[in-house]
Amino acid sequence: MKAVVFKGKESIIIDESFEKPNISSDEVLIKVKKVGICGSDVCSYEMGGPYFPGKIIGHEFSGDIVEIGENVKKIRVGMRVTVNPIIPCNECFYCRHNLENMCKIKNHAYGYTEHGAMREFINVKAERVHILPDNVSYEEGASVEPLSVALYAVEQSGFKLGQDTAVIGAGPIGLYIIQVLKVAGANRINVLEPVESKQKVALTLGADKVFLPNQWSKIVRQLDKLGPDHVYDCVGLSETFATALNMIKNGGQITLIGMHTSKFEIDNILMMTTNNISVRGVYSYNQDIFKTAINLFAQKKIKIDPIITNHIKLAQVPEIFEILSHPPHEELKILVDFD
Ligand SMILES: [Zn+2]
Ligand SMILES: [Zn+2]
After folding, report:
1. Closest-lying ligand to the alpha carbon of 283?
2. pLDDT in tens, 249-295
3. Which of 269, 217, 220 is nearest to 242 (CA)?
4. pTM of the full structure
5. What domain range is 250 assigned to?
6. In terms of domains, do 94 and 7 share one?
């Protein structure tokens, strides 16, 4: 069975030595249909981690159940499914308080510390499986995970109906956040994004106005010179955080979604104090959020077609990482097809 394996910094290979996996009594076997390539996959490729070398990548996926373990209930062969890739311990303080995204054995997940879905078959714990309604496609199924990231970010930011917002970065997560804010009743949704094709997609998906990153002062001017109540930083650089501080309304909240992997140096941190700014980091989601994401797809409230810019085959994955790791590029979400 062919699999896409993370080997370390700038090294992702196709490995043909993997066998079709066996399942344990609490697991199911899934025939994989679609797998999305995530920004965090590209981040690990660039940095040489935090993914574990030697593991198969892929944590955004959908497929069909082809086998179930003897203790598995409510899931049947033939069901179309997606999987919440986080593997919580179910015992620690956080897991007992529905905060599995903060589990003490943090970052234990398929496609990260365990083998992921970029292969023909994957075995997963049945409790992580979510059944897809008939009107939710495999493409949407493979997009439940990134939509969940966006839903959790907006929920945790404390956003309220009618507030003004700004989103920094119109990559896939930024584009889902725009749509979630629209569904949640945002007043103005402003977007900062350097790539023109991504600006256009942002407008298609509900942004009121798009600007180049250095034009942030136009957003402030447009909002009665007060600035947005909420800024969602989907990039994660010193520059984007500084921009968020510059444009946010006094007393507003900055939500950090983009992974700040590089050293953080900013000159205007004093504004955080003098302007009473809150900053909240958010990471992943929980099972409830995953269900909400599936429901939003079933209700056709979230679009994915403008976000999926490319469908590729498994063999093309290593070469596409070369492109994705050299921004700026025009790609948004790339799906690997297994049909
Ligand atoms: Zn992801
Ligand atoms: Zn735990």
Report:
1. 1
2. 999 999 999 986 778 899 999 999 999 999 999 999 999 999 999 99
3. 269
4. 0.97
5. 147-281
6. yes
